[in-house]
Amino acid sequence: MRKAFHQYFRPARDELNQLWQQGLLSFDASVLLNVYGYSEKTREDLVKFIEKHAERVRLPHQFGLEFARNRSSVIIKQVHSYLRVESELKKIMDEIASTRDHPFLSKKSTRAFHAIRHELEERRKAMEKLVGADPYADRMFEIFEGRVGRCPTLEERSQMEADAQARYANPDPIPPGFADVKEKGFPDACGDCIAWLQLMEIAKEEKKGVILVIDDAKEDWWLVAKSYKLGLPRPELREEFTRVTGQRFYMYNSESFLRAAKEFTPTEIRDDVLEEVSRRIADEIAALQAVLLKPMPAETERSDVQKISGPSDLKQPPAVSDSTPSADKSGPPAE
Question: pLDDT 10s digit of each residue in the chain, 335 long?
């Protein structure tokens, strides 16, 4: 029964181990772009991990395109985060300096305050430099050299966009990508579906299973029951992948992928790296919840969107204990 309905169950440990030892590794643009939101030490560890497994890495052309297209804007977003915090700290310091009453700060505390501002300024300037000279992007470009899927022709892309729209218009929308329609509209909402079709093509050509690492937390990728993520890819994805390619497929977010890597590969992942990645994913889920709960103004609703139900409210799942990779404690994908 497990074999007949494999898409509904967490893979057995030996099956996961085989996929880890023999399968390909692929990374969604969300994972590659999240690198810029981590501390320098964590960013370095993650890039080194990908470099170590470069021979097995494959990237659908769409994921590569999204990384290249959005890299600068993601870096600038981090720069603005530094500027915002620097501005708030300056306001606090100016207010303390201008008052004749309490609160007062000792010289030691004042020096510490200025040291924090200086460190923020230095890190912000370092982040700004990445727009033009980006050693992390250079290393990832080297990793993916010769490992990116073929660029589709205009005719092929048009056909994939048409296929995506047909999948989304189904009474039960076919994943992935339908959750992007309300926010992005067509054809931009077709990106996830195009990447998925390209990923299956890679697996079919190389006759290998695939582990996909993705930090997109929406329900068009992940199995959701009563607003809880179950830590499993949507069964439709696993069923389609096996049917089309004859290979196995599994999916993790960054945190659960690193935890599984500690179990299935001779890789040391520091606990502080796991904690930082976990916090970032939890923050992204909270931000996604805020967007999903925000009502869409009536005048902006699209007729082509109304046919497709949007993603459900996302809630973090209860803790799960399992000898195999457990459900992700931060809410999105797990092992």
Answer: 667 777 877 888 999 999 999 999 999 999 999 999 998 889 998 999 999 999 999 999 999 999 999 999 999 999 999 899 988 888 888 887 777 777 777 888 888 888 888 889 998 999 999 999 999 999 999 999 999 999 999 999 999 999 999 999 999 999 999 999 988 999 999 999 999 999 999 999 999 999 999 999 889 999 877 655 667 899 999 999 999 999 999 999 999 999 999 899 888 888 899 899 988 877 766 665 555 555 544 444 433 333 333 333 344 333 333 333 333 433 444 33
CA–CA gap between residue 231 and residue 251 (Å, rounded): 9
Distances in Å between the Cα of 258 and the Cα atoms of 25, 267, 271 are 12, 9, 10
70: which residues sit within 8 A by CB, 6+ positions away? Answer: 29, 33
Domain ranges of the chain: 6-58+137-300
